[in-house]
C-alpha cells in the first residue's frame, strides 16, 4: 500500500486489488497521525497554482521581469551577469555559475515581489562573493534587510503546475 497527501490536501491510498477494505482502514488508521501532520504542514504553506499549458508564456514573462530586476539591483551592487537563463528547475529558484551566468526558475514570476527580489539579489551577490559566508549575507542585507524572514517565507512557498 502507498499513502500520499497531495498539495491540495487530498489523501490518496493506493492499494492492490487483492486488499480488502478492512486492511485499508487499518492501514489508514495506523498512519492517521502522519496524515494529520502532513495536512497541517500543507495548510501552513503558501501554495500557488499555475497552468502547464502556459509555461512558455510564464518563461517569457519571467525573462522580462528577471532582466529588469537584475539591472536594477546590479546597479546597486555594481555587477552585471554574463548571461541570464530562465529554466524549469524542480528544486531551485536560482543559481550562479563560476563564469558569472545566472539561472532562474521561471516560476519566480509567481512569487510576491519581495520574495522574487530576494532570489535575484541572492544570485547577484554570488557574483561578488561565491559562497554563503557572513560577508555574502551582509551583501544580501544591503538590499534585503529582512532577508532572514524573507527566506523563511520563501521556503514555505510552493508552486504547482496543473
How would you explain this protein's 3D organization?
The chain is an alpha/beta fold. It has two domains: 2-44, no CATH class; 52-161, Metalloproteases ("zincins"), catalytic domain (Zincin-like), CATH 3.30.2010. It has helices at 21-30, 32-43, 55-77, 113-126, 134-143, 147-155; strands at 2-5, 11-14, 46-50, 83-87, 94-96, 101-105, 157-161. Strands 4-6-5 form a three-stranded mixed beta sheet, with helices on one face. Strand 1 (2-5) and strand 2 (11-14) form a beta hairpin. Helix 3 (55-77) packs across helix 4. The protein is elongated and about 65 Å long. The model has no long low-confidence stretch (mean pLDDT 93).
Layout of SSEs?
Elements lengths: L1 E4 L5 E4 L6 H10 L1 H12 L2 E5 L4 H23 L5 E5 L6 E3 L4 E5 L7 H14 L7 H10 L3 H9 L1 E5 L1
Parallel strand pairs: 3-7, 4-6
Antiparallel strand pairs: 1-2, 5-6
Helix pairs in contact: 3-4, 4-5
Give the overall form: elongated
In angstroms, what is the radius of gyration? Answer: 20 Å
Distance between the termini: 25 Å
Number of domains: 2
Poorly predicted ranges (pLDDT <50, ≥5 residues)? Answer: none
Q: Would you state the CATH class of the largest domain?
A: Alpha Beta
The overall average pLDDT, rounded, is: 93
Could you tell me the number of beta strands?
7
Amino acid at each position: 500500500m502507498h499513502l500520499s497527501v497531495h498539495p491540495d490536501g487530498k489523501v490518496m491510498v493506493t492499494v492492490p486489488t487483492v486488499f480488502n477494505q478492512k486492511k485499508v482502514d487499518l492501514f489508514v488508521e495506523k498512519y492517521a497521525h502522519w496524515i494529520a501532520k502532513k495536512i497541517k504542514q500543507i495548510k501552513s504553506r503558501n501554495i500557488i497554482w499555475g497552468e502547464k499549458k502556459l509555461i512558455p508564456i510564464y518563461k517569457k514573462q519571467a525573462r522580462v521581469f528577471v532582466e529588469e530586476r537584475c539591472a536594477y539591483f546590479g546597479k546597486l551592487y555594481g555587477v552585471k551577469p554574463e548571461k541570464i537563463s530562465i529554466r524549469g528547475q524542480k528544486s531551485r529558484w536560482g543559481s550562479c555559475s563560476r563564469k558569472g551566468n545566472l539561472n532562474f526558475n521561471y516560476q519566480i514570476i509567481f512569487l510576491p515581489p519581495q520574495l522574487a527580489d530576494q532570489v535575484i539579489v541572492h544570485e547577484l551577490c554570488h557574483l561578488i562573493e561565491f559562497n554563503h559566508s557572513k560577508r555574502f549575507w551582509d551583501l544580501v542585507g544591503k538590499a534585503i534587510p529582512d532577508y532572514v524572514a524573507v527566506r523563511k517565507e520563501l521556503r514555505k512557498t510552493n508552486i504547482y503546475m496543473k
